[in-house]
Amino acid sequence: MKDTVIQIKDLSKSFGDMDVLKNVNLDLYRGENLVVLGKSGSGKSVLIKIMVGLLTQDSGSAIVLGKEVSQLNQRSLNELRLKIGFSFQASALYDSMTVRENLEFPLVRNVKNLSKGEKDRLVEEVLEGVGLIQAINQMPSELSGGQRKRIGIARTLILKPAIMLYDEPTAGLDPITCMDINNLINQVNEEYKTTSIIITHDLTCAKVTGDRMAVLLDGHFGNTGKFEEVFEHAVDGRVKSFYDYNFIEQ
Ligand SMILES: Nc1ncnc2c1ncn2[C@@H]1O[C@H](COP(=O)(O)OP(=O)(O)OP(=O)(O)O)[C@@H](O)[C@H]1O
């Protein structure tokens, strides 16, 4: 039987009279890369925020790593969040710190009694993992957008999260760098044994990284399945046009 890491069941969320999520159901299985697609404003971020306890649902449940998130107290929520790595659209590195200092930051804040040697080893290990050990003493401003994105992913990985959430990982990058990031997402999944949700509008990213797609339409997931099932045989005109307007590498 598949091991479920996140289980969303009959989840609804409204703001005033705007129903954003309407009876959403979604399972995320251990080890998979799940791509979440949906046009701007469809509720992808709201769903992610509910998963990490930044917003609370009106009804239904969001069970993450076995715990109903809305029931957790602040301490348990903090513990849960440490198991979830966020890779934001803007890689959010601290400009005044070197790459090494940026990577040490989450360790210093979250891991007690770590020796300098252990810290150095962890920093070097994740930098090797994302192929940027040579950048260890550089400032973020000296790096390209793709390199900053890699460092941002490394900083997330340093706490060894069980779940990775990627928010538009390829936005604003050239096609070759996009491909590098797509490959890195797959490599992270294999080497760090993470389970990932990838929010993207980039169908090449979706196709390359996603074991499964979930399309948020009208407040719920109507279409979930493998890329080909969801897109190449799309019945819903909106899903089909999403596919037709994207460049897909054949
Ligand atoms: N805290 C909030 N208060 C009121 N409305 C909100 C709040 N958060 C989100 N919304 C509304 O919920 C809807 C869904 O927003 P959300 O940010 O989840 O969209 P999205 O699918 O992530 O879009 P994008 O692809 O542009 O990031 C939007 O209409 C947004 O204005």
Query: What class do helices, strands and sheet pairing give?
Result: alpha/beta
Radius of gyration: 18 Å
Strand order within the widest sheet? 6-7-8-3-9-10
**What portion of residues belong to β-strands?**
25-35%
Determine the mean pLDDT. 90
Number of helices: 9
Question: Can you characterise this structure?
Answer:
With 250 residues, the chain is an alpha/beta fold. It has a domain at 92-160. The protein contains nine helices and ten strands. The chain has helices at residues 44-51, 74-82, 99-110, 116-129, 145-157, 175-191, 203-209, 227-232, 237-244; strands at 4-15, 18-29, 33-37, 59-64, 67-68, 84-87, 163-167, 195-199, 212-217, 220-225. The strands form two sheets. Strands 6-7-8-3-9-10 form a six-stranded mixed β-sheet. Strands 2-1-4-5 form a four-stranded antiparallel β-sheet, with helices on one face. β9 and β10 (220-225) form a beta hairpin. α3 (99-110) crosses α4 (116-129) and α3 (99-110) packs parallel to α5. The structure holds adenosine-5'-triphosphate. Adenosine-5'-triphosphate binds next to α1. InterPro entries: AAA+_ATPase, ABC_transporter-like_ATP-bd, ABC_transporter-like_CS, P-loop_NTPase. It holds the Pfam family ABC_tran. This is Methionine ABC transporter ATP-binding protein. Residues 6-243 form the ABC transporter domain. GO terms for molecular function: ATP binding; ATP hydrolysis activity.
